[in-house]
């Protein structure tokens, strides 16, 4: 079965140019031959990151061939809906580990934030981020590649209407009485399918929490405060928790 085949991401442009006969780049040949230990004649799956999958045969160490025409993929799926975004004030270390975990859980777009109380976070390097996104897609059998947005100042993000639209930006916060749980807020959104088309964004603050200015600005511009539970979580734990809850909620909508 196709789902038992290990996957390799090839961008749509390269697939179109190949005509189905795929010259493999050095790192791809290394992955198939040295990591997966495939040999000529072995099969694997090729995904394009925009919803399509083909099975392929390794012909030589540096060449493969699709088993279906480009215009007739073996599997095809629409983009995940509604799209899920996390905007996260990165922890001081291991931001790349955090990125890997949330995209493996199903997040479609990740925006790193620099908040007023952030403490010297290591930036996510674009090349490293791209590698993580590719590996997560291949590992988790996703057909659509997640996106890593450019880093942004939290004040700039929260001063705008939520990226996914009014009422669909959820601000994870603590120590506010009467704050609904994230799943409660998501249930309310699900009652109005039209509002969900643009997706849902959850913003996660730094270890020290949002500053009063950030929180006030978010409320002024339509972000809804939500809680992730009674305990106070580290920012990385909060982000992974939110990712898991968002993915579970979207699966329940299907």
Brief summary of the model shown:
With 254 residues, this protein is α/β, with parallel strands linked by helices.
Lay out the secondary structure.
Blueprint: E1 7-9, H1 12-18, E2 21-23, H2 26-35, E3 43-47, E4 52-60, E5 63-66, E6 75-76, E7 84-89, H3 95-105, E8 109-114, H4 126-140, E9 147-148, E10 152-153, H5 154-158, E11 169-172, H6 182-190, H7 193-196, E12 200-204, H8 212-220, E13 224-226, H9 235-253
Parallel strand pairs: 1-3, 7-8, 7-12, 8-9, 8-10, 11-12, 11-13
Antiparallel strand pairs: 2-5, 3-4, 4-5, 4-6
Helix pairs in contact: 3-4, 3-9, 6-9
Looking at this protein, list some descriptive labels.
about 250 residues; alpha/beta; Ribosomal Protein L25, Chain P; Alpha/beta knot; 6-stranded mixed beta sheet; 9 helices; about 20% strand; elongated
Structural class computed from helices and strand pairing: alpha/beta
Quantity of strands, as a count: 13
Any idea what the CATH architecture of the largest domain is? 3-Layer(aba) Sandwich
Number of helices: 9
How would you name the oligomeric state of the polypeptide chains in this document?
single chain
| CATH-defined fold name of the largest domain | Alpha/beta knot
How many strands, which pairing sense, and closed or not: the largest β-sheet? 7 strands, parallel
* Mean model confidence by pLDDT: 91
General shape: elongated
* Alpha carbon gyration radius: 20 Å
What is the CATH homology-level superfamily of the largest domain?
SPOUT methyltransferase, trefoil knot domain
Q: Could you estimate the helical fraction of the residues in percent?
A: 25-40%
Q: Which percent range describes the beta-strand content?
A: 15-25%
Q: Which CATH class of the largest domain is shown?
A: Alpha Beta
Distance between the termini: 24 Å
Task: Count up the domains.
Answer: 2
Uncertain spans: none
């Amino acid at each position: 079965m196709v789902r038992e085949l290990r996957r390799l991401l090839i961008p749509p442009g390269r697939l179109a140019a190949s005509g189905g006969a795929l010259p493999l780049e050095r790192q791809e040949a290394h992955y198939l031959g040295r990591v997966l230990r495939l040999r000529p004649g072995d099969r694997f799956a090729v995904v394009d990151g925009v919803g399509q999958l083909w099975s392929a045969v390794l012909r030589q160490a540096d060449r493969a061939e699709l088993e279906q025409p480009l215009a007739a993929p073996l599997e095809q799926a629409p983009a995940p809906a509604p799209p899920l975004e996390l905007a996260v004030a990165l922890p001081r270390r291991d931001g790349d580990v955090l990125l890997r975990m949330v995209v493996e859980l199903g997040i479609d777009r990740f925006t790193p934030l620099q908040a007023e109380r952030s403490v010297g976070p290591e930036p996510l390097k674009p090349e490293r981020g791209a590698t993580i996104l590719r590996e997560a897609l291949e590992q988790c059998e996703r057909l659509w590649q997640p996106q890593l947005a450019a880093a942004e100042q939290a004040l700039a993000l929260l001063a705008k209407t939520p990226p996914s639209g009014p009422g669909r930006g959820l601000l994870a916060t603590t120590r506010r009485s009467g704050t609904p749980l994230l799943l409660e807020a998501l249930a309310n959104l699900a009652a109005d399918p039209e509002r969900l088309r643009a997706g849902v964004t959850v913003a996660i603050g730094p270890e020290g929490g949002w500053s009063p200015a950030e929180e006030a600005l978010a409320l002024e511009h339509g972000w809804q405060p939500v809680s992730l539970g009674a305990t106070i979580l580290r920012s990385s734990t909060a982000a992974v928790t939110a990712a898991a809850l968002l993915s579970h909620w979207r699966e329940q909508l299907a």
